[in-house]
Amino acid sequence: MIALVTGATRGIGAATAAELARRGHTVYGGGRRWNDESKNQPSTPIRQSSIVNRQSPMVRLTLDVTDDASCSAAVEKVMQDCGRLDLLVNNAGISHCGPIEDTPIDYARAVFETNYFGPTRMIRAALPAMRRQGGGTIAIVGSAAGKIGIPFQGHYAASKFAVEGLAEALWHELRPFGIRVVLIEPGDVGTTIWRDRDQVEPQDSCYAPALRRFLAVKDREMGAKAAPPEQVAAEIADALLSDCSCLRRPVAPGAQFILAARKLLPDAVFLRLVGRNYRGNG
């Protein structure tokens, strides 16, 4: 199988690329910056090459999902080397934190450019090849936040809510072409996405006390309580390589429970529970 994973320089993307390569698949990893930090990820024995071999479990591609030409070039590179693309894993994403009232629109736009329009660009670039070859798998790494409007992560959650709709529509559109769509819904995973977030925290904001309480809880959730990327990557690989035609696949401890609660509980109950968890209200 020939796979292309976006956001493969770190975190879930790096771990998923390494896991797919470990299972014997040919993997191309896309990222904006390949630096010394990337060398410490699970995909360590990587070299820049257009030839995939047993000594090189992942081929690095410079890829910016916010740029149309870069997305097209990445898919073209895979097609030139291998003649097909069987699996596209849309993993690249960024986080953001801050009150909606205090957050400049440009910040919100940047989140959507990566988290929503990024997968859209990659999918549009990959689909002609998949349709010609008569099949393939499109995977999108969403989030449990795609079902839960987490306070002070409104724009991040909104981008993941949008991905839910995108994936569901694609599931219908691509079935006639034999192309499978899988939406991965992780819970809390111990990656750098939370540490590297853009954060708006004006000291004179009326939201400051609630925001500080939220950050204390979120730091714990994304710290020792979070699932390691390698564990989540194994779950993702199992989902992508299975014969299951289901659309949504929760991964990481707690994701299945919280998403089931979102589905089963009345809004009045669920929203109060979320508010209490983050100590912002309720």
Features of the shown structure:
282 residues; alpha/beta; Rossmann fold; 7-stranded parallel sheet
Summarize the topology.
Blueprint: E1 2-6, H1 11-22, E2 26-31, E3 58-62, H2 68-82, E4 87-90, E5 96-97, H3 105-115, H4 117-133, E6 136-141, H5 154-174, E7 179-186, E8 198-199, H6 208-221, H7 229-241, E9 248-251, H8 255-264, H9 267-277
Parallel strand pairs: 1-2, 1-4, 2-3, 4-6, 5-8, 6-7, 7-9
How would you sum up this structure, described in words?
The chain is 44% helix and 15% strand. Strand 6 (136-141), helix 5 and strand 7 form a beta-alpha-beta unit. The longest helix is centred in the middle third of the chain and has 21 residues, at 154-174. The protein has 282 residues and is α/β, with parallel strands linked by helices. The protein has helices at residues 11-22, 68-82, 105-115, 117-133, 154-174, 208-221, 229-241, 255-264, 267-277; strands at 2-6, 26-31, 58-62, 87-90, 96-97, 136-141, 179-186, 198-199, 248-251. The strands form two sheets. The chain has a seven-stranded parallel β-sheet with strand order 3-2-1-4-6-7-9, with helices on both faces. Helix 2 packs parallel to helix 4 (117-133). It has one domain (2-277): Rossmann fold (3-Layer(aba) Sandwich).
